[in-house]
Design goal:
The protein has about 300 residues and is an alpha/beta fold. Helix content is about 40%, strand content about 20%. It has 3 domains: about 80 residues, Arc Repressor Mutant, subunit A; about 110 residues, Periplasmic binding protein-like II (D-Maltodextrin-Binding Protein, domain 2), CATH 3.40.190; about 100 residues, Periplasmic binding protein-like II (D-Maltodextrin-Binding Protein, domain 2, 3-Layer(aba) Sandwich), CATH 3.40.190. The radius of gyration is 23 Å and the shape is elongated.
Length: about 300
């Protein structure tokens, strides 16, 4: 049995909680994954995973083994990166995650440059507005928007964005322009309910939090923006999400004098990945890309 391969499969099943999802991620057949776990448990003489018809869990002994496997595999990957050297040609698979709209508009351009320049490199891009756990989900680097709370991650600043309230010209013509955050209570609000969403909107320093009551709540930023363009109300977005619509006059920024401080955009990665040639190249390419095409503040549009 390929012990290292079996360990990698076990870590995937344990962290994903699914044989099928692990098989998909590893690009193996479900039978190969099932057989690998069975052989591993048989050789160890232990039950590592508890199975039911609906879920897969890790046993107490399995959790101990999982932590050891993760450390062993991390050390092996680190040794390979170090022996190749930081300036080695990027190769293998790099796993990247980013917010959905930002990834589509900006990160995909970085990836396009990387794939054109480095033929031995492949990239798996996961777009999600949820902050994925990098170590647990096997992700090499994440592009994140907002202040970073996890001190165990290394962060490289790529730029800043800002929150902006927008509405269509037709809506503002019909309902008027609110002149202060408190006046939002008199308007139809479209809310984007992402993981960190709240109905208490913060504005500039000295302004109290304003609690809004949405008439329409959606779980996708593109949908909220489309609803605003259709004249259904006022929505709050990040500057990069609505720049094209504002430049085309489909949306109008409002309450800009009350705008909160800018929000950082960073590439973050675990410290143990610092020697990865692929990661180093991704970060360098991303920084170059945002120097050539910087994120433009709303007031400069």
């Amino acid at each position: 049995m390929d012990r290292l391969g079996a360990m990698r499969i076990f870590v995937a099943v344990a962290t994903l909680g699914s044989f099928a999802e692990a098989a998909r991620q590893k690009r193996l057949s479900p039978s190969v994954v099932t057989r690998s776990i069975a052989q591993l448990e048989d050789e160890l003489g232990l039950t590592l995973l508890s199975r039911t018809t609906r879920s897969v869990g890790v046993t107490e002994r399995g959790r101990i083994y999982l932590e050891s496997c993760q450390q062993i595999l991390a050390d092996i990957d680190d040794a390979e990166r170090r022996v190749r050297g930081e300036n080695a040609e990027p190769r293998g698979e790099l796993k990247v995650t980013a917010p959905i709209v930002f990834g589509r508009l900006h990160v995909l351009r970085v990836i396009d440059r990387l794939l054109r320049q480095h033929q031995a490199l492949s990239i798996r891009l996961t777009l999600s507005d949820r902050n994925l756990h990098l170590v647990e989900e096997g992700i090499d680097v994440a592009v994140r928007i907002g202040e970073l709370a996890d001190s165990n991650l290394i962060a490289v600043r790529l730029g800043v964005v800002s929150r902006v309230l927008v509405a269509s010209p037709a809506y503002l013509e019909q309902h008027g322009i609110p002149l202060s955050p408190a006046k939002l209570a008199d308007h139809d609000i479209i809310a984007f309910e992402n993981v960190n969403a709240t109905n208490e909107w913060r504005f500039s320093a000295g302004e109290a939090l304003v609690r809004v009551k949405p008439r329409l709540a959606v779980n996708n930023a593109d949908t909220a923006i489309a609803a605003a363009e259709a004249g259904m109300g006022i929505t709050r977005a990040l500057s990069y999400q609505v720049q094209e619509s504002v430049m085309a006059r489909r949306l109008i920024p409002i309450l800009q004098s009350f705008a909160p401080p800018p929000i950082p955009v960073s590439a973050v990665y675990p410290a143990r990945r610092i020697a990865s040639a692929s990661l180093t190249t991704f970060v360098r390419t991303a920084r170059d890309q945002f120097k050539i095409h910087p994120l433009v503040p709303v007031e400069d549009w």
